[in-house]
Design goal:
Layout lengths: L1 E6 L6 H5 L12 H17 L5 E4 L3 H13 L5 E3 L9 H9 L6 E6 L3 H11 L14 E5 L9 E6 L1 H7 L1
Parallel strand pairs: 1-4, 2-3, 2-4
Antiparallel strand pairs: 1-5, 5-6
Helix pairs in contact: 2-3, 2-6, 4-5
Amino acid sequence: MQLILIRHAPAGDRVEWALTGQPDDERPLTKKGSAKMRDVAQGLARIFAKPRRVFSSPLLRARQTADILLEAYAGGDVELAPDLEPEADPQATLRWLKTLKNPQSVALVGHEPHLSSLLALLVHGDADLETMPFRKGGVAILEIDDLHPGAARLKALLPPDILRTLA
């Protein structure tokens, strides 16, 4: 299985958004964040095949990032996954991944600190290590033969500025 982990693109300021009275779950990407993510997604599409399935956290900024990703790959459907929320348990996410049928290539769009913890769990076997933080718009590519802690091979950890140069 190829697993692509993607942190959402830059969103609006958390404090300013809170002053609007809207829930943080609905905080959108900024225009600049959307534009940067379009370049990131185009760069990713140049070097990696389209994932068969794309899952996103239900939070708006992650959904918008997933939509931009699929635009770069000429469309597709985003599936929502509560196991990708910012404070989700990486072990629960791993259990959920095991339930997917034919997961040959899957992209997960989510948040920190969850993505770093999930990456540490998959590669090192310990979600508490968090040795590989994600920048907004950052991408990790993993190869996994058997979905259990410590069994993934990290193929690439790509900061967004590198991917934008490939667009």
